[in-house]
Amino acid sequence: MSSSPTPPSRRRLVGVSTKMYFSFAQTQAYIASVLEHLSRSQDSPPLLDLSQIDIFIVPDHISLVSAIAQLKSRHATPMIPKILPGAQDAFHEDCGAYTGFTSPAVLAEVGCRIVELGHAERRRLLGETDADVARRAAAVVRNGMVPLVCIGERTRGTGRRKSQTSVGAGVDREGSDVEGEAEMIAAAVAECKPQVEAVLAAIADMELNGNNNEDADADVILAYEPVWAIGAPAPAPASHVVGVARGIRELECVRRRGATRTRIVYGGSAGPGLFAKLLNEEGGKYEDKDNGGPGGGSIDGLFLGRFAHDPAQFVRTIREVAEA
Ligand SMILES: O=C[C@H](O)COP(=O)(O)O
């Protein structure tokens, strides 16, 4: 009797953006402190196994080269995991008369590994469109880096959820109207759908045109960040996050990609304690093994902002994602 092979799992990941919160010196001090905390957490048993997860730090553009050097210098240190450096944006052209833009080719040249695209703040302040984000994602892949594409609905939705007024009520499902919640999830997935489709279509087109040497779908990270949960006192409700992530996984453009090639992280006032709540919400109800899931998960990790700007809290969250 032959048993079907176990599908490969998606690697978990956890990262932080410093947005524009830090000075150059503060970014250097932050990274040094994160490395120090990670090193200390490996000093005594029980040792933390970080080999199965990806960790990334996304500083501002000016601090990036220095951050890359800092991270590289510690990679030789035993027990310290590799931390992938990321950028907060890249243009869709590699070079030319594009004053003030950031070249993806130069980012790759200096050792950048992940490029965040289409953050809600850029969509709002700079008018970046799905088409802009899609072209940039293709350029990031073309240059051998991984796009971290921010998607998310702008408003809390019009479902009839009873606890709609309080964002902070997020993780507490008491009093929620399940039908209204389902409507809000469906509305959020519908708003995310064109954002995801545009990006995956642009990457698929680029791959079809032979610009990618890989013989497989490119790795893509979707950062699901409901706009109303960014910069808020608390994250979106776990039930909402998991519901939307499942809806995104069911989109045809996601389903037809390689099983492990699309990872989804949650962002928006995320911090310590959240990942366990998300996994608890998944509760094994969603068997995503066919799609490379780690045995019941639609969410692969977290993308943090403010609540990880304290290095100890970031490392605490890394530990939680690794051990959950
Ligand atoms: O880039 C990260 C996200 O926008 C979340 O930021 P936040 O945790 O400060 O809300």
TrEMBL record:
Keyword Secreted: no
GO cellular component: cytosol
Entry EC no(s): 5.3.1.1
UniProt KW Isomerase keyword: yes
PROSITE patterns named in the record: TIM_2 (PS51440)
GO BP of this protein: gluconeogenesis; glyceraldehyde-3-phosphate biosynthetic process; glycerol catabolic process; glycolytic process
Keywords: Gluconeogenesis, Glycolysis, Isomerase
SUPFAM superfamilies listed in its UniProt record: Triosephosphate isomerase (TIM)
Family listed: Belongs to the triosephosphate isomerase family.
Subunit structure: Homodimer.
Protein's recorded name: Triosephosphate isomerase
